[in-house]
Amino acid sequence: MALAIDLSDRVALVTGGSRGIGRGIAEVLLEAGATVVTCGRSEAEPPGGATHVTCDVRDPDAVRGMVEGVVARHGRLDVLVNNAGGAPYALSADASPRFHDKIVGLNLMATLTCAQAANAVMQQQEGGGAIVNISSVSGVRPSPGTAAYGAAKAGVDSLTGSLAQEWGPRVRVNAVDVGLVRTADTADHYGGDATVAEIERTIPLGRMADVAEIGRVVAFLASDLASYVSGASVACHGGGEQPVFLYIAQQSNGEAL
């Protein structure tokens, strides 16, 4: 029997879904047939077929209003993708307490805030729902320069398991631990295409992910194909990061990676 992801009867909300990884996720959910709503702090043009609403996901009242608006317009909310997040580079010794508070607020507390609002709807509707939290490999290894972000993402992985136990059986909660992903800003972020190519040589699969590849993992977790998957943190990182000592040793010996 052929397997296919069919979300044609689902309503999905993707936070931070108008650009980057979030946009890629929204596009895949649309391809799977879902009705998709994206949100962000400002007006934006969502992928074709989606609608966009403005919301500061750190504001509980705004989040509740957003979720109520989605349900009022579409009748239900089946999938929440907590994608909004990120952090600029800042060494921990130099960053202010306010900076750290904002990073943790966006990457961890906003995830919980949105999940609470979605769960309140999903628990009451036929079929329940699925929540997918976009986490990061930064949460499972040291994250120098983005320490508060890494700590927040470690919290997201822990939160995922706790919510899965609290909110089952009606609501499944999973996370995707995302590695390096190519977006429109990748070359600028890492200092050019040559540097990006060198970084990609350290990844076992030989390249960074495409945003659609993250989207397909999300679509699977949101679908009935993952009906017995809850509380999982799924690694999507191309095989992981090679130890630095091994990379240096191979480079010194002239060995191919």
Automatic annotation (TrEMBL):
Domain Ketoreductase: residue ranges: 10-184
Pfam family, one: adh_short_C2
Keyword Oxidoreductase: yes
Keyword Oxidoreductase found: yes
GO terms, molecular function: oxidoreductase activity, acting on the CH-OH group of donors, NAD or NADP as acceptor
PROSITE patterns: ADH_SHORT
Name the UniProt record assigns to this protein: SDR family oxidoreductase
Organism, scientific name: Nocardioides immobilis
